[in-house]
Amino acid sequence: MKKIGIKGTGSCIPTREVPNSYFEKMIDTTDKWIVSRTGIESRRMIEPGQALTDLATPASEQALEMADLPPEKLDIIIVGTSSADLLTPSAACILQHRLGAKNAIAFDVNAACPGYIYGLAIAQKFMQDGSHHHALVVGGEVISNRINFKDRSTCVIFGDGAGATVLGHSNGNKDGEILTIHLNSDGNLWSLLYMPGGGSRNPPSYQMLDEGLHYLKMQGNEVFKYAIRTMVSAAHRVMKSKKITSEQIDWFIPHQANMRIMEEVANRLRIPMDKVIVTVHKYGNTSAASIPTALDEAVRSGKIQRGDLVLVNSFGAGFTWGAALIRY
Ligand code: UT7
């Protein structure tokens, strides 16, 4: 089987900054509460009229440029997202059009926050037999227009963004390699984190909008417990399968959901915080975008170097979760 490595990364975070003080003026909350319970100081949100592919397109262009790959050479485009521009067609098809990637197959993966890791796993399977040579995997989300700005338990957490990764065949070692990926889902718990309206269960209607069914609903403290447990177990599983110990991990990129979750997961995995890539304080929880945007920032800032061993893991609505070990 062919080895698959990361050839390029890119990211796009909206320019509009929304600090905690914005919410202090609107709802019963404080900067102190938000920082102490989540670690979030600010987040970025799109301008009215923008949509996911307005972020995913520049992120993908950056990744293609780093990989030195023309868009026509892409065989696959996968976008991990729960907030595509339209209900149909997929954000991936719109992205394909915008990039001019005319030879790719393109589709979305709705696996919530771990959508990017799910996308990596699917692309890896397509490429391992050598039939597909280059993939673009995007994790992106525009949640700011699906949150209720009167619900203090959700509105202070989320932000928008998109991150992209170009994958190609590799010789391993310094050429980079996705060593292993583990995915999991548990649909029994779907109602702890969901968006009731807009799909076929509650199609768009005035009543649906009046009842606020188009907003994200979350039982935060229940989700919190599962997030820690499942992210730790997925990380242990990939490390065990490759006989890797915590000390061998150079960088850990957990889903940027909440600083307290990230600290507890790192603590249980015995990974010191100075090896953890953190962006949640400035971007909030960007769902499927959180890992690929953090990866891109860490690569471009020179933190993550070729040959480094990177552990990524995530958890989200579904529930879905997963982890990957990547030799960058
Ligand atoms: O990315 C996908 C997965 N999502 C996650 O991983 C999110 C996981 N959950 C969380 O990050 C946290 O549960 C939250 C940040 C959402 C909430 O923090 P918490 O420490 O779990 O708070 P809680 O829900 O247990 O609520 C404790 C109190 C409540 O007040 P009472 O009932 O004790 O009087 C809430 O109403 O905190 C209150 N509260 C707030 N107070 C001020 C909830 N949100 C706020 C707020 N400002 N923004």
Tell me what the structure shows.
With 328 residues, the protein is an alpha/beta fold. It folds into two domains: 3-171, 3-Layer(aba) Sandwich (Peroxisomal Thiolase, Chain A, domain 1), CATH 3.40.47.10; 178-327, Peroxisomal Thiolase, Chain A, domain 1 (3-Layer(aba) Sandwich), CATH 3.40.47.10. 33% of the residues lie in helices and 24% in strands. It has eleven helices and 13 strands. It has helices spanning 20-24, 31-38, 52-67, 91-99, 115-128, 152-155, 206-210, 220-241, 259-269, 280-283, 290-300; strands at residues 3-12, 16-19, 42-45, 76-80, 105-109, 134-141, 161-170, 177-185, 193-194, 217-218, 251-254, 309-316, 320-327. A five-stranded mixed sheet has the order 1-7-6-4-5, with helices on both faces. A four-stranded mixed sheet has the order 8-13-12-11, sandwiched between helices. A two-stranded antiparallel ribbon has the order 2-3. Strand 12 (309-316) and strand 13 form a beta hairpin. It is globular and about 55 Å long. The two termini are 19 Å apart.
